[in-house]
Each structure stands twice: as C-alpha cells, then as structure tokens.
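As the work plan foresaw, the team has encoded backbone shapes as discrete tokens. One protein thus recorded appears below exactly as we store it.

:::
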Amino acid sequence: MFAQIYGIPHITYNLKEEFKCNVINNFIEEYSNQRTPNPCIECNKYMKFGFMYEKARKLNCNYIATGHYAKMEYSNEYKRYVLKKANNIKKDQSYVLYSMPKELLGKVIFPLGEMNSKEEVRELARKNNLKVANKPDSEDICFVPDGDYKKFLENNSNLKPKKGNIVTTRRSNSRSA
C-alpha cells in the first residue's frame, strides 16, 4: 500500500450506505425514469467533494487529492481558482467535475492533470514500485464492472428493461433497441 511505503497515515471510513443512497440509487432512479445517468458525476458531488472533503476537514487537512485527469489553476482574470482540462486530452475528466463547489476549487489537487500520457503515469508508478503500474484502465462504472447494466438493474431493482425505440430529435434516426 502506498501510504505504508511512504509512512503516511491511512484512515478508512465505511461510506457504503452513503454511496448506495447517493450514487447507486440515483443510477437506478434515472434508468427508471428513462434517463441515462452518469454515476461518476454523482459520486464526485456527494462522495469525493462531499463526504470525503468533510472527513478531511475534520482531520485538519488543508487539501484533498484525487486521481482525476484535470487541472486546478489560479486565474488572475477571475481572482479565484478555476477548473481546467488536463494535459492529456484523451483522458480529461474535467467534465465530470462541474458540480464541485467553487469554494473547494483551491483545496483540491489533481496530480494527473499535468501528465501527458497514461504511460507517463505508469512509468512514475513503476519508479515508485507501486503495484498499480500495470493495472488495466478502468472505463466502466465501478459498481457495474462487467458493463452489464441490464443485469445490474434486474438484480438490484424491480426494473425489467425491455426493448423499445431509441428516439432522437431527428425522426429519421429512430431505430429499435
């Protein structure tokens, strides 16, 4: 574990219920209302920049850091910190951070924001003997790691997905799902 290797105190909290209430239940609710959810936005809003930040504040931490590909910079024009795209545009995640409260902008660190490639990140991890150096990229929703949303919804709600039309604003693009 990184914290042990570098002698950093490591504290864990069980926020399983909070995650279920704020992220998973929202995912199910959005699908039940025929909307496509983005659980990463809800997780950032409630878990990382809500509960995690509050826990860090109670521990007298001045900053929190996450593994998002984004940058935080002070803007002389706006006289405050602003969220910016990461150097690695292919991995940029600034769009899922839009709900971050502006008062937190100067209190969050994004170490990956200045990295130019995933290989650069992996090389840094290798140099520091971190096991995650060769971990495959994760692009699925963390609580649906196999990407089978239909199975997840069937197992975790009373929703029974059914076939229907995909409807767009242009009539000629409607097609059966």
